[in-house]
Structures are given as structure tokens and as C-alpha cells.
Task: inverse folding
């Protein structure tokens, strides 16, 4: 039996209450998941009390950097240890908030990790990284001129001693909220079934899917994009990529919610075993997927 990993990324533009709504929804449906949270939100009074409840609902909280801004997207790629202080800060804030150390990490916008960033994650004691999006098309990413994990392995592997890479599933586009909201419900189901079939072909393959907290909310539209359409929206920016893409996404909350239901049903229907949190993939050496 192989596990399925559901991840939920939280961002500053989300409505704080949506964190609890998503968490309760998962709890009520008996689903395990890993939430990736930028640690600046632990210091935000609006978010904090929603975030500290997550472990009580059986949900894992992982680190999603500190500010989740372009400085934090550039620094891990460039690989200068001096720019990576935000990883240490994020770890310390997590420890302060939960009286426990984070186990899992995902870089902001799945940005590539250079050797210095990987070393820092190991030094901080992280055991799982889920930043890779293998063979993602750079042109549709936030960093169109960088190597966006083009040659990364598709199944989990040891990224560094003691650090397991569990890639976010990807078939040119990541198995993630922006993709679901662009494809809409039926194409999402088809994409996901193709991905589950493809993952099953790898001996150690683990489907790892991402959602946003607003995807679980059937009555309020997702946070609106700051973007206004202009000619510049069609030129890939070094930081942000092709911006018109954000305007293609589904905004009707009922339809967004229907897409989420479709995703969960499709994953539940897969003959691959149950949902696990990322930290469970390294709990004991015997359950180590490689
Ligand atoms: Zn993110």
C-alpha cells in the first residue's frame, strides 16, 4: 500500500478564518494533511490562533519560509548561505509557537534549492522537503528563467543525508491549486487520474497534491488577484512569470469547492492506500520509502 500526501499552503493574502474552515473540513472528512505556513503568520494576531489549532486536529504544520516573498525565492536558488537567515528565523519562530521543531519544508513558490539551502535544512533538522516540482514548465512558473526542477526525480529520494525529498506531483504543471482553478473540474479530474496512473508506474511513487485554504470554502470567493490585465501581463517576468495566468482561474466559490470535492473523491478512489502527513514518511526507518 502506498500513501497519498495532501498538502495545503497558507499565504498572507488568505482570510485567516479559512485556515480553520479548511482544517475542520479535513478533520470532519477524516483526512490527514500537511499545512505549509510562512512563519511571519505566526506573529500575525489574525492568523495565529487559527494556526496553533492545526496540530489538535491531527494536521501537520510544515515551514513555508518566513515571508514567502521574492527575496526568499531568490535566496535558496542563488545558494549564498548569508542570505538564508530567514530559514533559521522561520525555524525558531516555529519552535516558539509549537514548542516543537518543524519536520517538513516547502520553499516559497516551489523555488529550486541550491546546495547552501539544502545544507541549512539538514543543519536545522528538517527531515522532509517538498519543494520539487519535477519537469515543471519554467514558463508557467514564478521564475521562468530559472531551472525549475527540470531534471528532478519523480519519486521520493534522499536529497541529502537524512532529508527525504517528496516531490509535489507534476506533469508539466504542478498538481496544485493554481492548476486546478485554471483547468476547472472535469479537466482537473482527468489530469489527476493521469497523474495517479503515472505515479503508480514508479516503484516508490507517492502522489503529493497541493491545495489552498480558500479551496475548501464554498461561500466566499478566493482572495482576489492584485493583477490588472495589461500588455505586460503576457511577458514572462523574471519574478512572477506570466501574470495573465492568474486571471484565468476560477473565481466562483461554489465551483472552486466542487473542484476540491472532485480532487478528494478522485484521490480517495485511487487504489493506493490512505492519506498521510509528510512527517509520517520518515517516522521509522522501516517505513522509509526507499
Ligand atoms: Zn506558497
Result:
Amino acid at each position: 500500500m502506498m500513501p497519498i500526501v495532501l498538502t495545503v499552503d497558507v499565504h498572507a493574502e488568505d482570510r485567516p478564518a479559512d485556515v480553520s474552515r479548511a482544517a475542520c473540513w479535513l478533520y470532519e472528512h477524516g483526512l490527514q494533511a500537511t499545512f505549509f505556513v510562512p512563519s511571519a503568520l505566526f506573529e500575525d494576531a489574525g492568523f495565529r490562533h487559527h494556526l496553533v489549532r492545526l496540530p489538535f486536529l491531527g494536521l501537520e504544520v510544515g515551514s513555508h519560509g518566513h515571508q514567502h516573498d521574492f527575496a526568499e525565492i531568490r535566496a535558496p536558488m542563488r545558494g549564498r548561505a548569508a542570505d538564508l537567515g530567514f530559514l533559521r528565523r522561520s525555524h525558531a519562530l516555529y519552535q516558539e509557537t509549537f514548542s516543537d521543531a518543524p519536520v517538513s519544508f516547502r520553499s516559497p513558490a516551489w523555488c529550486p534549492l541550491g546546495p547552501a539551502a539544502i545544507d541549512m535544512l539538514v543543519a536545522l533538522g528538517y527531515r522532509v522537503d517538498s519543494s520539487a516540482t519535477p519537469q515543471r514548465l519554467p514558463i508557467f512558473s514564478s521564475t521562468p528563467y530559472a531551472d525549475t526542477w527540470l531534471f528532478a526525480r519523480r519519486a521520493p529520494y534522499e536529497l541529502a543525508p537524512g532529508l527525504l525529498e517528496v516531490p509535489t506531483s507534476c506533469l508539466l504543471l504542478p498538481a496544485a491549486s493554481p492548476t486546478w482553478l485554471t483547468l476547472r473540474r472535469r479537466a482537473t479530474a482527468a489530469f489527476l487520474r493521469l497523474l495517479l496512473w503515472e505515479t503508480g508506474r514508479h516503484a516508490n511513487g507517492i502522489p503529493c497534491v497541493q491545495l489552498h485554504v480558500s479551496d475548501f470554502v464554498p461561500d466566499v470567493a478566493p482572495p482576489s488577484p492584485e493583477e490588472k490585465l495589461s500588455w505586460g501581463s503576457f511577458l514572462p517576468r523574471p519574478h512572477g512569470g506570466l501574470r495573465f495566468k492568474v486571471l484565468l482561474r476560477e473565481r466562483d466559490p461554489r465551483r472552486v469547492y466542487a473542484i476540491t470535492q472532485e480532487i478528494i473523491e478522485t484521490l480517495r478512489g485511487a487504489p493506493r492506500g490512505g492519506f498521510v502527513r509528510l512527517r509520517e514518511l520518515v517516522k521509522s526507518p522501516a517505513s522509509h520509502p526507499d
